[in-house]
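Predict the holo structure. Ligand: guanosine-5'-triphosphate.
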Amino acid sequence: MEELFTIRQAEFSTSAGTEGNYPPALPCEIAIVGKSNVGKSSLINRLTNNNKLAKTSAQPGKTRLVNFFLLNRAFYLVDLPGYGFAKASKAEQKSWGELLDRYLSSGRVKHLLMLVDIRHTPTQDDLQMFRYLIYYNIPYTLVATKADKIAKSKRKQEANKRAKELGAPPFAIPFSSETGEGKAELLHRIGQIYADCLPKESDPEKVSAEE
Ligand code: GTP
Ligand code: MG
């Protein structure tokens, strides 16, 4: 049977602003993008079983810096400010945009978890984000958040519909930070992403030694 990927340890590492003061890079860095209030910080807390790790709020615009969390003392999970928070001032929106852009173009991120609300058709900002990650060829996994807000019988179907509306292959993981639904599936995915970041078994020396 396939081994279950678990998060045994999680700690806050650093917050970075527009000056790009990121911590030393590790082979694996996974970041979370999505519109403001979609549940990025809550997802980190649910994955790590620690409600105090990432700060969450019912008010959009809570996360304002690039927050690095070190998991299993091995890889970073990065919480980002959300986009599309209409009530923020133009200056704030610009500065968050720059923060995101600077981080995403830093070349550090190996994989993005892109979150969309399971209940709503993706916004223009979501579409723009999705085009951006396709353009820059950043590997991604789609997660449809707040699955607890719709009937259980519709969750899979609605999650996949959101993916399709973004223009992606029709698959997103239904997830709820409230109930933990989708946690095992997402952890499994993170395990695969982590394994992909590590040096491959098939390095030439090893292959020739086996011949
Ligand atoms: P920003 O930091 O502003 O970009 O937002 P965020 O994406 O980090 O959202 P956050 O995790 O702070 O959650 C926003 C609100 O949604 C909070 O009130 C959460 O309790 C709520 N929330 C997040 N995930 C879920 C979920 O799966 N189900 C339900 N019912 N509520 C959720
Ligand atoms: Mg947040």
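The beta strands are 10-16, 29-34, 66-71, 75-79, 111-117, 140-145, 173-174. The first strand starts at residue 10 and ends at 16.
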